[in-house]
Amino acid sequence: MDQYSSSLVDTSLDLTIGITRMRVEEDSTTSALVDELKRVNAENKKLSEMLTLMCDNYNVLRKQLMEYVNNTERDQVSPPKKRKSPARDDANSSAVVGGVSESSSTDQDDQYLCKKQREETVVKEKVSRVYYKTEASDTTLVVKDGYQWRKYGQKVTRDNPSPRAYFKCACAPSCSVKKKVQRSVEDQSVLVATYEGEHNHPMPSQIDSNSGLNRSPGAANRSRSLAEPVTTIDLTETKKVTSPSRVDFPEVQKLLVEQMASSLTKDPNFTAALAAAVTGKLYQQNQTDK
Amino acid sequence: KDKSASELREELNRVYSENKKIKEMLETVCEKYYALHHHLE
């Protein structure tokens, strides 16, 4: 019995101690995880704030760069619009100001367009067409009208195969008169010069302007625009004048007188008047002789 | 408090991933910002 009593086996499993240890370890891990989670969440929050700040700064900087590039391009394209730059800079601060600025610039553009259209209308009103009769052998597109011209272009197109030359008045830098010279489709010996605008200076050489002018209203029947004044000048006679200078003035004067005489003799009214005058003179002379 | 350790670990992994993404984005924005700043100078 004693043996049994002395050799009693401890039948307890001591399970409670082990369970408590595991719980303690688990609790410490959980609290560590919670702490780490809190730390990482706080870090995330700070990083998000920094990211937002950096994005804002980046956008502001990008906007500034875009405006700078736009202003530079605008200055390069049209220097007179430089004055608009401050207004556009103000547009950065508020959208309302930007809207006003845009509308004002649109108004200015409209005014500019209206002014330009008005100028174009004025120029169109002052279009005149002059027919120059040349010799058939002459193939150049040069007409001597007393002004100095600078040729700036020549063109031939499929629908209009007759070549045409474009000139700009070179007498004065401020003069904006342009001239287009083209051979007439109906008569290749006739040069058609279309003038746009009015000269803002006197004719450089009076001799040139007088040489060979033969403004004959009864010229060949040519198509003409009702809005455009048409003049016909015979350049075949001007060839006789070798050099248009003051030295040749008597020759030019003689030529003018001849042309005036020829044109007057063609006028039946003038012939009748002349006949009456001569008859009257002869009658008076006969009366005095008697 | 009611979350278990495994749930906490899962949540922590999600936040780590989010953290990594934010850092990458921040790095990209910083690079772009300084490049732009350098270009403007």
TrEMBL record, chain A:
Key word Glycoprotein present: no
One Gene Ontology term of the molecular function aspect: sequence-specific DNA binding
InterPro entries found in the cross-reference section: WRKY_dom, WRKY_dom_sf, WRKY_plant
Domain WRKY: from-to ranges: 138-204
Subcellular localization, as worded in the UniProt entry: Nucleus
A Gene Ontology term for the protein's cellular component: nucleus
Primary localisation category: nucleus
Bias (Low complexity): 93-105
Record key words, sorted: DNA-binding, Nucleus, Transcription, Transcription regulation
Pfam family, one: WRKY
One of the protein's GO biological processes: defense response to fungus
Chain spans, region Disordered: 71-111, 197-228
SMART domains: WRKY (SM00774)
SUPFAM superfamilies membership: WRKY DNA-binding domain (SSF118290)
Stated name of the protein: WRKY transcription factor 40
Organism name: Brassica napus
Lineage, opening ranks: Eukaryota, Viridiplantae, Streptophyta, Embryophyta, Tracheophyta
